[in-house]
Amino acid sequence: MRKTIMLVIISILLLQGCAKYEPIIDTKGKSKFETSNASDISNDIILCEKLAKNNTTLLGNISFWLISPKAETQYEHIVKTCINNRGHSLLK
Fold first, then answer.
1. If you average pLDDT over residues 22-29, what whole number do you get?
2. Concatenated DSSP letters for the chain?
3. Measured distance CA(64)–CA(25) in Å, rounded
4. What global pTM score does this model have?
5. Where are the domains of the chain?
6. Contact between residue 75 and residue 21 where contact means Cβ atoms under 8 Å apart
7. Contact assessment for residue 57 and residue 76, using Cβ atoms and an 8 Å cutoff
């Protein structure tokens, strides 16, 4: 039983490094503002990813994923919300 639990924990830890959310942003559209925000995308993505990384844990991601209707992690949800709130049109 202990070997099975250890194997599951090790698998989860290894798979966590493989999964990285890459947002797809529509840079042509003007989104919610009258002027285009395309020049701010790189900075906004970096800041949103850093914000999400600082505010998530492995257990938090797993529990959020289990109850999420879209089956997304807490990290992915924070990045999406942050990018949307900065006025970018997020496709994925």
1. 70
2. -HHHHHHHHHHHHHHHHH------EESSS-TTSSS--GGGHHHHHHHHHHHHHHT--HHHHHHHHHH-TT---HHHHHHHHHHHHTT-EE--
3. 24
4. 0.67
5. 22-90
6. yes
7. no
